[in-house]
Amino acid sequence: MILRFFAAALLVYAFGFLGFAVSLPKPLAGEPTDAVIVLTGGPGRIARGLSVVDQGLAKEMFVSGVDPEVRPAEFAAEFDVSRGTMECCVKLGYLAVDTRTNAGEAAQWLRENKFTSVRLVTTDWHMARASSEFEETLPPDIRVVEDAVSSHPSLATLFLEYNKLLAAVVSQGLPS
Question: Does residue 14 lie within any of the structural domains?
Answer without folding.
Answer: no
